[in-house]
Amino acid sequence: MVNPCYWILVCVFLVSGCVSVRHAAPEGVLNDVRIFGMRDIRAFSGSPSDSFKKDFVKLLEQEEKTNSSSLGFRTIRTYSILAISGGAANGAYGAGLLSGWSETGTRPVFKIVTGISTGAIIAPFAFLGESYDKKLKEFYTQYSTRDIARIKIPFHNSLASTWPLERLIERYFNLELLQEITREYNKGRRLYIGTTNLDAQRLVIWDMGKIASAGDENALKLFRKVVLASASIPIAFPPVYLTVEVNDKIYDEMHVDGGISRQVFFLYDVLQGVDNVLKEKGIDPSRNKYSIYIIRNGYVDPLYKAVPDKLSAIAERTVEAVTNAQSIGDLYQLYVFTKDGKGNFNLAYIPATHVSKAKELFDPVEMRELFDLGFKEAACGYIWKKFPPGIKRVQ
User: In sequence order, what E strands does 267-365 have?
Assistant: First the structure.
């Protein structure tokens, strides 16, 4: 399958045009903005977030009260976490794997779900559980490239328009879905999606449950915009602009594909210092463990392919190599987090034995094959990889 990021490299040499006037938000106000009147709904990866830490501590305090044993002992609790990667049309594999997992009756109710790029589309369905498997299958097996994007001329800030994808997002992400996410949010479960703030060159982590809980049309509009932004491959697809307000001044922010910053993510960097806060509350952090399940909608094994001696082929192969290297680095970060006494690591990815026969960027025939592959592997009892590539169990 053609890597969508390939077009980024090619189009740098091809695309030029007029510059639009922007009123970009200054760096110093990024943590203080209001978006549709909402605050404390996001955090910037790499910087501790007081609002996210307070929310996380509140969740664990509630668990501490409700799950202590009748004898007064504080038991070790293991929370199931699902992290879904980018991968464009390869998201069909993750959709199939989740559906097949449901068939076994062993799929957990995840305490936290994170998604990025194509994973941002999968994540809300995965968060709500197997009742949404049919919609997930439909989204990843019934549509082709023309249902996602259309070439536009003249080129301004992208090669294609994503109005077809916007219509799909409007169809699948409606007020009813937001109400169901809100119910789960109120039960103490969390859903996060990542976008890239291109001005800041930083991953932005959005608390989608908190956004959904606002319960109005503005919340629905922002929810859809965040999903669209996370899946918007820059240059190929236009950026998503968010209007933000701070100190009675209006600015705009440019958000694009979250996969530009990270292929898969968890919250450990925005929760820096949370263990100290928990100790102050009388909660032993070592009693909270995390079983992290990672769905990598792509390959992790190097795949040999003879590269033709032409610019387009070299560019495509180069972007594939860079993207794969980035994804492996992200997997290692999650592995280190779990090995630091926090829990266990579980990884699924497209096997190297699968050879793509895609004839277009979003080829429904190829996507159905990937969905069926993921479904079959999971329904037969998927053997999760306990180590990222390159690490073997020490005997």
Answer: 288-296, 343-349
